[in-house]
Specification:
By secondary structure, the chain is of the alpha/beta class. The chain has helices spanning about 5-10, 65-90, 115-130, and strands at about 30-35, 35-40, 45, 50, 55, 65, 95-105, 135-140, 150-160. The chain has 3 helices and 9 strands, in the order H-E-E-E-E-E-E-H-E-H-E-E. Strands 1-2-9-7-8 form a 5-stranded mixed β-sheet, covered by helices on one side. Strands 3-4 form a two-stranded antiparallel ribbon.
């Protein structure tokens, strides 16, 4: 089976869209409504594991995650959102536009760089979809996320 153009672009960056993650609670990874796919929040799980856990901080240490590591984790979340989209529409080349990205960053109380962390996801969408990857976004700091992950990302796309 050949890769979609979107997946080929990602492969050129050394990235692959994983299989959709199994939900850890009572929800589905993505739903279709009209010509839109809404994903559930996707956390940075790779091969069933988490590379880092904890709150994001400008001064990482015990239990705290660096901005660079959190940005990498946001990229993993973005790949997982694409897996969720692919699971319901079959081919990422059907995506007409990335509409909205919502990202949550588990933040140390003094951390205010949530937007910088979420650039890891936003930049991936831009590289994968080109002009169609330019989107609206919210970057929200929160006290804690499920399983103590540093980042969670939701995605809304329009497809044909």
């Amino acid at each position: 089976m050949s890769l979609s153009q979107v997946e080929s672009r990602l492969q050129d960056m050394g990235l692959t869209v994983p299989e959709v993650a199994t939900p850890v609670a009572s929800y589905v990874p993505a739903v279709i409504s009209g010509n839109y796919v809404y994903t559930s929040g996707q956390i940075p799980v790779q091969n069933g594991e988490f590379a880092v856990k904890g709150k994001v901080s400008e001064n990482p240490g015990e239990g705290l995650v660096s901005v660079a590591d959190a940005t990498d984790q946001a990229r993993i979340c973005a790949l997982n959102t694409l897996a969720a989209v692919k699971s319901v529409i079959g081919d990422l080349d059907r995506v007409k536009r990335v509409v909205k990205v919502t990202g949550f960053v588990s933040s140390d109380p003094n951390f205010t760089g949530q937007a910088q962390v979420l650039n890891g996801a936003s930049e991936l969408y831009g590289k994968a979809f080109g002009e169609a990857g330019i989107h609206a976004r919210s970057a929200v700091g929160v006290a804690v996320l499920p399983l103590d992950v540093p980042v969670e990302v939701e995605l809304i796309v329009e497809f044909s």
